[in-house]
Amino acid sequence: MQVNDSELHAQGASTFTDDIPTPQGTLHAFPVVSTVAHGRILNIKLDAATAYPGVVRILSARDIPGINNIGNIEAEEVLLAEQAVMYQGQPIALVIAETETIARQAAALVEIGYQELPAVFDARTAHAQGLHIMPPRIFSLGDTDKAWQDCDYIVEGSAGSGAQEHVYLETQTALAYPLENNGLKLFSATQSPGLVQRACARVLNCPMHRVEVDVLRLGGGFGGKEEQATLWAALAALGAVKTKKPVKIKLNRDEDMRLTGKRHPYDADFKIGLDQCGKILAYQVEFFQNAGALADLSPAILERTLFHTSNSYYIPNVRATANSCRTHLPPNTAFRGFGGPQAMFILESAIFKAAQAMHLDPAVIQQKNLLKDGDYFPYGMTAQQCMAESSWQALQSRYLIQDRQHAIDAYNARHPLSKKALALMPICFGISFTATFLNQADALVHIYTDGSVSVSMGAVEMGQGVKEKIRKIAALTFAIDEARVKVESTNTTRIANMSPTAASVGADLNGAATLLACTQILQNLKTLAAKLLADDAKPEHITLKQEKVYLNGEATDIEWGKLISQAYLSRTPLSAHAHYASPGLFFDRSREQGKPFAYHVYGCASVEVTVDCLRGIYSIDRVSIVHDAGKSLAPMIDRGQIEGGVVQGLGWMTMEEIIYDQQGRLKTDNLTRYKIPDFYFAPEIEIEFLADEESPAVMQSKAVGEPPFMYGIGAYFALIKAIQAFNPNWQADFCAPMTPEKVLSALYEKNESPFN
Ligand code: MTE
Ligand code: HPA
Ligand code: MOS
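A: This is the predicted complex of the input protein with dioxothiomolybdenum(VI) ion.
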């Protein structure tokens, strides 16, 4: 019987790329990487490595048969550096050896001579030096210049958030087999089998149909394998083609942490203007994105930052300028939220700072400015079925937020050395790829003669439960037991030109394609059933319920098994392919206006914290959420997505701190130096679903993967409130993460309390 991934995981029975049995003679590859952040390559000495016993071959850029470019957006992304290196950890050569250990040892023997060039690691310095990935982009609504004169309060400041490591459990891995006729089969731990296929074909100078990419599942991706799995897959592919042997590549944790990009750090300058009631009249912001050395997905991430500039608030006058700044760090990349969280953190910082100037609770400003139906976003869309206010209200009433606030005030009055605080965090996240053309998907459905069903589609399972949702869609459409449905590996020979599994739309797009394909077969089956049952019966008189055929609502003696064997015998098609494209999307970049999103997901959270004011340590006590999941297809999965997203967001805001040294080398390259939330850190999480049955989501079940991440932003503001309850003289600098070290120094900075 088919079971879901969660059951296999619990049994330790699921297969990941590294578990795939390797054929006899499989070789192992390991890259030689740059040890300088920016420089010209003067020479490469291979002698010692080549002579090392067990080394089969060492490849460099000259060995690439096709184009030395694996880039998706920009044409600058080389597979192996040739003349220049742009970051520490950039691959320059590839050692292929009999074992993994030999490949690593020999890679360390390759000597590279560099002429070092000046390197820049922070976005503002890069901006000042004119180092950019692309020209700036500007979104605007209304007229900020005119609006300032109507404001009673104008507050300016800066804010910024740090990088974040993905820490997917499964590190970057690929296995490539050469096939007959110069073909290649690749097992890659990627969110984007289609991109891997295209990049490998380009590097190998062969048509895409010669490269088959197969993905069974990932041990997590979180955006870190949307673009950045391609490099490792292409290296394995090159190795396999050059040696005519299977080649495997796999990074250890510290290597993965050093050689791959992270969530983009952002800096920003803001100016916010309000009337005396707290209504925001104008918001001006300039973002400085630290893109790292190469474009990767930075332009798309920058765009999503702009889309989420005003989060779930209506601000009539907005001017947002976004700069993608080139630094000499590993290229930063997609990470849950895709630039959205960075924008939202900056706006919350501006609101917090304004609230302080006005002696208001930030919640007063937040509530007063929530979006309503018909309000404009700064990119041409209007809010529809907007749930910003209803989720805010539902949060208040469901969790009695006012009572909680009173209890916190009373606690703080009684406890001189321990302070609690609560912050609210509303979210509004746009659902669709911001690149309109990516909003398409295909599915291929087969029913075998025993009535079992096979579904192929373009989404990659990475723990988010997309295959479980797809199974449910097929089972519900055919009215059969889920156990009959198998969702196949994600494979480029069955599904062509698939978009990455990203932007939270894996189930929406691929589920819709699956639904279309199943419906086509179902139509054939209904026509057949009508013919079998009565002369005057029509397909529209037929329904299927619990594996049985009904005619005009009456049960018949045709059950699923019989229906399928009759279909086969009567030569009725039992396979179908369907294509889905989200309707109505467009975006005009010359005007920065359009309808980029199929819909928005809303919600609101309350985050409660306690700070130990003697030691600076803190706990996140509770996160209470009202979330708009639509009519959830899989409530357990969605709950898991919300919990996981929140905890990841809390980590980003609190303990996860990426540190590079003066040479651009990652210092936090293992999990003792880089802390992520664990079971003990995770707070109590309460979740209430808001039902919104009218949405363009597949089967009304809204996308859930990324939005909950942003509830975690509340933790930063709860922490700074708790610190201020102890040390009212301290002014927050709005630089996340708020690590325990920073909390400790904040507690005692300019503190005139008797505890200092
Ligand atoms: N959940 C798990 N367990 N593992 C993951 O890697 N990735 C997140 C989210 N939830 C991820 C996850 C990200 S970044 C996205 S875009 C979505 O899942 C992608 O899957 P979906 O489109 O099917 O929701
Ligand atoms: N999200 C994730 N990945 C993407 C997007 C997006 O909006 N656009 C292009 N790639
Ligand atoms: Mo998610 S960052 O769109 O992979």
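The pocket of hypoxanthine (ligand 2) is lined by residues 226, 297, 300, 304, 334, 338, 433-435, 438, 502-503 (CB under 6 Å). The radius of gyration is 27 Å.
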